[in-house]
Amino acid sequence: xxxxxxxxxxxxxxxxxxxxxxxxxxxxxxxxxxxxxxxxxxxxxxxxxxxxxxxxxxxxxxxxxxxxxxxxxxxxxxxxxxxxxxxxxxxxxxxxxxxxxxxxxxxxxxxxxxxxxxxxxxxxxxxxxxxxxxxxxxxxxxxxxxxxxxxxxxxxxxxxxxxxxxxxxxxxxxxxxxxxxxxxxxxxxxxxxxxxxxxxxxxxxxxxxxxxxxxxxxxxxxxxxxxxxxxxxxxxxxxxxxxxxxxxxxxxxxx
Length: 255
What we know:
Layout: H1 7-16, H2 20-35, H3 40-47, H4 52-61, H5 65-73, H6 91-97, H7 101-107, H8 111-114, H9 127-133, H10 137-144, E1 155-157, E2 160-162, H11 164-170, H12 174-183, H13 198-204, H14 208-215, H15 241-250
Antiparallel strand pairs: 1-2
Helix pairs in contact: 2-3, 3-4, 4-5, 5-7, 6-7, 6-9, 9-10, 9-11, 10-12, 11-12, 11-13, 12-14, 13-14, 14-15
Pfam families: Ank_2
Protein name: F-box domain-containing protein
Keywords: ANK repeat, Repeat
């Protein structure tokens, strides 16, 4: 079967196979390799233990979801699924950033990947933060169902340190806000750098539905203060001022 491969592909594979186990693994996978001719090089890299993450990165970044799923069906070292790139991103981070939902589901079936659900990149971001910031509801729901997921981890976003909920509130992803609230995250989590709460960011950013979703949660504290001693009532919304202020004052505690 190896002889059916393109000459340059055959040379690439053979030059990187180190022992009989690698050769056997490659032979068993050649039929699958030939089934996806346009992606031969990615498949070959996946079989070579030094290059599997690079192959997955290329497949995801070039929006080749079918290829990424195909790669995951090929045999590869377990370390490939726990490797990270130069920025510290795991394959879960990459799938979350590229909205590769089917790839994410397949990755989460692998125990190696599930062990990486709380892995942080160089910005201290987890895959959940990436999915929440981009508003990818299905990915957020899939990740929050994983045992041991850290719902309240904080990572850097510019000069801020935010949880997944902070990010969803800042960027107006109300469905993600509701999903995170339902998953049991801390709705009053103070940001590490300035103690701003998710509700403060939702109000400041003018996202009415995010504000509404948070205020519906029984544990939300509208009187929580930040590092400057300000509550959400001191935060001036950039948009939808009247509607947001109306929602807030309904929840103002009666003295």
